[in-house]
Amino acid sequence: MADEELVDPKKYLEERCQPRCVKALYEYRECVKRIQDDETGHKHCTGQYFDYWKCVDQCVAEKLFDKLK
């Protein structure tokens, strides 16, 4: 048992949940394309980025706590 390497289930669950959040990921990527040529630095996609990860985190939370001991 001591020789077993522990695996973080969150990483696995994040990968499994990403397909559920395709719309948020698409919106983030579209925003990145829109502001790509902004040289002022005033435009950003922080909101879309956090929307995407919120979606992933909510999906992960449903499953993660069942796997924790």
Please give a structural write-up.
This protein is mainly α. It has one domain (9-67): Helix Hairpins. The protein is 65% helix and 0% strand. It has helices at 9-17, 22-35, 46-67. The longest helix has 22 residues, at 46-67. The protein starts with 8 loop residues before the first helix and ends with a helix. The model has no long low-confidence stretch (mean pLDDT 88). Belongs to the UQCRH/QCR6 family. Its main location: mitochondrion. One of its GO terms (cellular component) is mitochondrial inner membrane.
Question: How would you sum up this structure in a few lines?
Answer:
The protein has 69 residues and is mainly α. The chain is built from three helices and no strands. The protein has a single domain, classed as Orthogonal Bundle (Helix Hairpins).
Task: Furnish the topology, listing elements before pairings.
Layout: H1 9-17, H2 22-35, H3 46-67
Helix pairs in contact: 1-3, 2-3
Tally of separate helices? 3
Radius of gyration: 17 Å
Straight-line distance between termini: 16 Å
Give me the CATH fold name: Helix Hairpins
Report the uncertain regions. none
CATH class: Mainly Alpha
Question: Per CATH, which architecture?
Answer: Orthogonal Bundle
Instruction: Determine the CATH superfamily.
Output: Ubiquinol-cytochrome C reductase hinge domain
Judged by helices, strands and strand pairing, the structural class is mainly alpha
Helix-strand topology string: HHH
Q: How many strands, what sense, and barrel or not for the largest sheet? A: none
Shape: elongated
Task: Give the overall pLDDT as a whole number.
Answer: 88
Helix content: 55-70%
Family: Belongs to the UQCRH/QCR6 family.
Pfam families: UCR_hinge
Domain Ubiquinol-cytochrome C reductase hinge: 8-69
Keywords: Disulfide bond, Electron transport, Membrane, Mitochondrion, Mitochondrion inner membrane, Respiratory chain, Transport
